[in-house]
Amino acid sequence: MLSSSVFRNTISSISIISTSSSSNSTKIKPNSLKSNSINFRATSKPPNSTKVDETEIPRVLLNSVRVLEWDKLCDAVSSFAATSLGRQASKEQLWVFDQTYEESLRQLRETNAAVEIHKYSSAVMDFASIDALLVRSAIDHTRRSSSVSGQEAIAVAVLLQFAETLQLNIKSAIKENADLHDRFMPLVEPILSWVISKPLVRSILRLVSEDGSIKDSASGKLQQARGRVLSLESKLYQLINTLISNEEDNTTSLEASNVGGRWCIRSRAGQVTNFKGLLLSSGAGIGNVMEPVSAVQLNDDLLEAKASVADAEAEVLLDITEKIKLDLEDIENLLKNIVELDVINARAVYGLSLGGTFPNLLKLDDKNAALSSEGFSTKDSSSKILYSPKKRWKLYLPKAYHPLLLQRHRHTLRDAKKEVANAKAELRRRRLYGDNFSQQGTTQIDIKKLQEKVTQVENSPPIPSDFQIADNTRVLLITGPNTGGKTICLKAVGLAAMMAKAARSLCFMLRTSTHPVV
């Protein structure tokens, strides 16, 4: 009997049936997944077999996922996460293989909700502005009663602003169309339940600039200290320039230098100067560094003023830290939810990018029962042969693509088109500036070759396979010549099962005409 250990409770068979088929179903539209569904059937009863030695499971499992190149698919999916913590969490989640049926079903619903939000507006789920690592660092510093930095404070404010904007967009969408509430489930309720401190956002933005620097207006003490620093630096600048200009013929060999925050004059080794000063350093090749006596007090005052600035900035940051501490639990929960949402969004965007089809997970009590197409309607007359109610399947995958091959083909096509665009831009540049075309460079012939390469790639897409294994099949024998696609077909089935479990959109496309049963 065909068997696959996909959930903790072994799946005795996997059955897949598409619920709709149309002549336009193979066309992938932007921001849309296939409306048809792929159905996986699982039973929760464990098979009557001896208990497997748990010490052997990791090795067998790792060997299996290595053959399937699961790590490459994990990298592909996690690359769609916008935050660093989201990418890390996405990979960690994909490498968890002991999910229950209920857990996979929950993740599938979350992915579907994210797709629905993308259909409404793809900009709503853009997490690129969030620096999750800085927010995490701000939380850690606050928990240890250590002051946050200006950049960490801004990262917290950006997180809260994003959450507020997302809430407003979701509320606005539901207000326009009440049906969206159900379509956005189960993500809508957690999003609308976020606690966001608007006063904290206003306070941070009032005190800290976008680059993380403390504003002059943050406190009177800070403004006064910075004003004194500017005044002293101006006096030192004038003094140093005056001393250098007074050195008759030696001005070309003298230059202002800052050593440890003190303004000095650098000269050649052994050079005699007219001003009195303190020798701070000297040596062959580096010359002499002298602090003019007349600049000593100003330098002392400057260092003192800068220390006052640092103290004033520390007071502002400490005040921000105390305000963050008041909402620390809400901020920590919000960061956790945002990272989880980023992971869910990565799954959704990955499926959208490949035009995938959602799997439909069905759990049956009888592990020996096969799933038939009865109960699934279709309007396409040609589908009556494919999905006959009299036919019962162990496995049904219409036009299944190997996801890594499909992704590789799209990347190759994208790169080929980019080469054409770059070549055309180079040709326009050469014409504009009148470059000599006899020299080695881009020509119309080169562009034509690149365009032919694009056409060649477009005409060589990955070939999908149809998997239809009837209920009464006990043994499946796959034969064929070398490089005939046997291994790719088996890998496609294995990845399909794992992707369905991980709530990933499967790379299936409905066929528009009948095909022989494989």
Automatic annotation (TrEMBL):
Provide the GO MF annotations for this entry.
Answer: ATP binding; ATP-dependent DNA damage sensor activity; mismatched DNA binding
Name the SUPFAM superfamilies on file: DNA repair protein MutS, domain III (SSF48334)
What's any GO biological process attached to this entry?
Answer: mismatch repair
Q: Which residues form the DNA mismatch repair protein MutS core domain?
A: 68-408
Instruction: Specify the domain of life of the species encoding this protein.
Output: Eukaryota
Q: What is this protein called?
A: DNA mismatch repair protein MutS core domain-containing protein
Annotated organism of origin:
Saponaria officinalis (Common soapwort)
